[in-house]
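Table S2 (continued). Query chain:
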Amino acid sequence: MQNKAPKVRHINNPKLETIKPGYKGNKIIQNQFANGDELYNPDFSNVIRWKLSANPQKTEKKADTYTPRLVTDNSFLQAEEDMVVWLGHASFFMRLQGTTFLIDPVLYDLPMIKRRVGLPCAPEELKNIDFVLLSHAHRDHLDIKSLRTVCRHNAGVKVLAPLHAGSLIRSASKHLPYQEAGWYQRYDIVPDHLEVYFVPASHWHRRGLFDMNTVLWGGFIIRTKEQTIYFAGDTGFNGHFEEIQETFGPMDICLMPVGAYKPSFLMQKSHLNPHEAVRAYNVLRGGTFIPMHYGTFDLSDEPASEPVRLLEQIAATGLMSGLKLPAIGEALLLRDLG
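Corresponding output:
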């Protein structure tokens, strides 16, 4: 008796433009989103292996008390200049030509994981936000409590999200407007002088027992006539960086994840280490490199300061230019970047 071939289909949002020629949409295998053509189910035995194995850097990690610098100042919310402000982990505030964005806002502790460093302002002070961008639905990127706070204080906010994220967004607010996009799709937003695209990442999804890979993951391209900004989301190293560069051209500003990479047997397929992040940045022909996904939550085995130390060492060799290490809450003016 022959085994049945796995059920395969491709989907996107038919209401949105797909800008990559010939792209059929995101591949779904047996009702799960795939990384390109490959279905990735993280092996739970690796989690058990991680929990039962000794961290070779345990002593070093315990002694490492590093946290990112914090600027306690909400003046960036009233400023008018174009800027990007890191809010810790993978959360950013961004203003572009009068339009404001929050990317992956996580403003509180995670379940069983406390923030190691605070915010530049109270979550309730994040007002006049036009768009919330959600890269994927892991709890350190899509936090329902944070989303509810943003909605409560921003009556006109809209959400730009991946395919099949709608039910989670509705659990935060029944009336919150949102758009779902597949890879290489352009969101339909006003004003039209700004372009926002959803682009590939090499990752996975799970929030509960029975929802493996049911919500898509990815990154964002935010483009004006002057600059192209890339937010990588959570991702392992894969061929999508070349595809993104071929489709959109060089990236003026790259917001790149550099933490939660050890042990590699558990993390390598879904997170970048600093060397891989720089390699991806060079593939993207990046200008400014702004690291994220480090220092805010303790998610992995590397010492807290290791990502920053490695990036500074790599920058010193000349393998990357444009490294910026902003404090949480420090406004980086876009006219000075790229």
